[in-house]
Amino acid sequence: MTELLRTTDPVRLSWLVALLADAGIDAIVLDSYTSILEGSIGAIPRRLMVDTDDAAQAVRILREAGEA
């Protein structure tokens, strides 16, 4: 797995996961559970991860969308 980015913005994460899914890339968000457990302060960033084989294409897609 390769980390693409970290953010505390759940809306941005949702957008990026949808953007990657549209390109046929499966992405997962890690640390959601920990972030929820810590409360709504948003102090713990969530990580957007993709398979290592898809990382180069995913980075290109995020750059083209102005998100990387």
Automatic annotation (TrEMBL):
Q: Which residues form the DUF2007 domain?
A: 1-66
Gene3D superfamilies to which the protein is assigned, alphabetical: UreE, C-terminal domain (3.30.70.790)
InterPro entries referenced in this protein's UniProt entry, alphabetically: DUF2007 (IPR018551), N-reg_PII-like_a/b (IPR011322)
Q: Would you tell me the protein name for this molecule?
A: DUF2007 domain-containing protein
- Organism in which the protein naturally occurs: Azospirillum palustre
